[in-house]
Amino acid sequence: MSTRRKVGLAGAVVGAVSAGAAAAAMAKRYAVGRIRLRPDLEASEPFGEIRGREVTLTTSDGVLIHAEVEGPEDAPLTVVLCHGYCLASDSWHYQRRELRGTYRLVTWDQRCHGASARAEASDCTIERLGEDLALVIEKLVPGPCVLVGHSMGGMTIMALAERRPELFDDKVRGVALISTSAGKLAELTLGLPALMSKVVHKAVPSAVSIMRKRGELVDRGREAGNDVAFLAVRHLGFGDSKNVSPTVVDFVESMIRATPSEVIADFYPALMSHDKLTALDVLNNVPTSIIVGERDWLTPPDHSRAMAAAVPTGQLTTVSNASHLVQLESPAAVNNALRELLKRVERAEP
Length: 350
Fold this sequence. Notes:
Elements: H1 3-36, E1 53-58, E2 64-70, E3 78-82, H2 93-99, E4 104-108, H3 126-140, E5 145-150, H4 152-163, E6 172-178, H5 194-213, H6 215-222, H7 227-238, H8 246-258, H9 261-273, E7 288-293, H10 301-310, E8 315-319, H11 326-329, H12 331-347
Parallel strand pairs: 3-4, 3-5, 5-6, 6-7, 7-8
Antiparallel strand pairs: 1-2, 2-4
Helix pairs in contact: 2-12, 3-4, 5-9, 7-8
């Protein structure tokens, strides 16, 4: 083949690839544009603006933990809200708005998340998060409390139950586990076909390694939100729901984007190796609520059913047409389940 023909063929291939990439980009913009044109009932919601009295705690390994307290010191019951992976305490927006006038609230940013300080990679473990929660309770909860955890926050509560089971009676009077799991996260399909899921799971360790080694470079590419990030959050966090508010998706995406790539990489092994099924027996000592969206692809309903089987005294609530971020997607259903749990706690004897 002549040099001229080779160059012409190469140019044709490059042109075809470029055209395909441009078409894909246009398709993404078109999809996101159509989503944003839908009525958005949450467009004026003041996400990230609910604030309490700020407190800074220092953990045993010297990490500064940011927390906020709302309500009187002598309140008969405190609700402690523990957020999930790559999120922050602002992810409890609707629950804080619902409960702040009735109960004393404590929200906190888990280490390396939100306004809390970074920690060494070796200290980014679920067990260490359980110790941090014990510190939050010790310093900020003068009386009895109810612990509420979403995703990694639920795992944090399980770690506390494993390490400090004696707290779950007189001090911790109730527990809510929302969109979480006691283990086997490495087997998830993420809502993808089986073959594609296998490809993704094989690719993730390499991506995590790059995020750890080249975190600053990766973060520069994440500084501005984009259509891919929007669609990814909408798919994984909300099950690609047609009803979720674009404003809510943007709010979640901003929290994820604010989480450094190195932090995402540091906690990933802890999440994949998480196994706390035996710790759930401790929760039989207190009223427990297990809440999950029926379309949750990150911590599927099967995981919540397994936890409910391990906590026969608990109540399982499956929220229709909701996914992993059920507390933001279907706040009324989650708030109703939390209200019911709090009533059970108030009726129960310690």
